[in-house]
Structures are given as structure tokens and as C-alpha cells.
Design brief:
mainly alpha, 3 helices, protein phosphatase binding
């Protein structure tokens, strides 16, 4: 062994080379182990972070869903209460309108009856259960009877030109047939017009 150099034999050099190779292999193996450990730890960290993010997202979505359901339930309840209040208001308005109309009708009927009783004029009409066509027929028959009665009386009280004595009673002429499509309809229209005019006058006075 010198001051600056070491003189070795050839087998010592081979041993040193073998030791260096072994150490190099061990170093490489340690590096691989360390790199794998670091990679696994990094992957585990990423997985944990991802799991935390997924958990937080799920919890956020769950909270949002719960809040949405609560809001929806509150809106449904509020809508139902609003509909119920609106229905109650409409029902009260309809009932109030009905009672007001009923009270006005009673007041109008009472005032009309009192005025009719106080006045007692010729425009005080009463409803009859006799149908209008029967009334029209009776009017037509009375008019026809009046028209046929006058010539019969004239024939009874007339004098005979030859003998100067009252002539015997003659048979009345046959009752003229009325056309149901013309005279009855005209009489019906006339009576209906009269009744309508009388009702309009009474309503105007009321």
C-alpha cells in the first residue's frame, strides 16, 4: 500500500467488482421498492380523496334532494290551502249573492203585492188554471154566438109582408166553421199580446 495508491492482486479486483455489482443491484432494488411504495401511497391518497369527494357529493345531493322534497311538500300544502281558501271564498260569495237575490226577490214581491193591493186598479190580474187555447175557443164561440143571435132575433120579431102576423121562429143558420190555422191563431196571438202587454205594464209599475 503506497501513499496515494493501493496495489491489489487480480482476485482482489474481481472481488471488488462483484461487491460493487451486488451493491448496485441492491440499490436498484431499494429504489424500485421505494418507488412502488411511493406510488401506492400516492394512489391510496388519490383514492381516499376521490372517495371523500364522492361522499361529499352524495351528501350534498342527498341534502339538496331532502330540501327539494321539503320545499315541494310545503308548496303542495300551501297550494292545497290556497285552493281551499279560494273555494271557501267563492262559496261564501255565491251564498251571499244567492241570499241577496232571494232577499231582493222577496222585497220586490212584497212591494208589488202591497202596491197592487193599495192601488186595486183594473190592471190587477190573476193567474188562471184554464189554458189559453180554451179561453180563445170560448171567446171565438161567444163572438160567433153573438153574430148568429142577432139575425135569429130579427127573424123571430119580424113581420110577414103577406099576412101581417109575426112569422114563426126560424132555425138559426148553421154555425160557421172556423179555420183553425187563421182565426184561432190570430185570436191566440191577440190574447197572448194582450197578456204580454198587461204583464209588461205590471212589471213596469213594480
Amino acid at each position: 500500500i503506497g501513499v496515494r495508491k493501493v496495489f491489489l492482486k487480480h482476485w482482489h479486483a474481481n472481488q471488488l467488482n462483484d461487491l460493487c455489482l451486488q451493491l448496485q443491484r441492491k440499490i436498484i432494488t431499494c429504489q424500485k421498492v421505494i418507488r412502488g411504495f411511493l406510488a401506492r401511497r400516492h394512489l391510496h391518497q388519490k383514492r381516499s380523496i376521490t372517495q371523500q369527494e364522492v361522499t361529499s357529493i352524495r351528501s350534498f345531493l342527498q341534502v339538496t334532494e331532502d330540501m327539494g322534497l321539503k320545499t315541494y311538500d310545503a308548496l303542495v300544502v300551501q297550494n292545497a290551502s290556497d285552493i281551499a281558501r279560494e273555494n271557501d271564498r267563492l262559496r261564501r260569495e255565491v251564498n251571499a249573492t244567492f241570499h241577496e237575490e232571494k232577499a231582493e226577490a222577496r222585497t220586490t214581491q212584497g212591494g208589488g203585492a202591497k202596491r197592487a193591493e193599495d192601488k186595486g186598479g183594473p190592471r190587477h190580474f190573476h193567474c188562471s188554471s184554464v189554458p189559453v187555447p180554451m179561453v180563445v175557443d170560448s171567446l171565438v164561440q161567444s163572438l160567433a154566438g153573438a153574430s148568429t143571435r142577432s139575425p135569429s132575433l130579427h127573424s123571430v120579431f119580424g113581420l110577414d109582408d103577406s099576412s101581417g102576423l109575426p112569422s114563426p121562429r126560424k132555425q138559426p143558420p148553421p154555425k160557421p166553421k172556423r179555420d183553425p190555422t187563421t182565426r184561432l191563431s190570430a185570436s191566440y196571438e191577440a190574447v197572448s199580446a194582450c197578456l204580454w202587454a198587461a204583464a209588461s205594464d205590471s212589471a213596469g209599475e213594480g
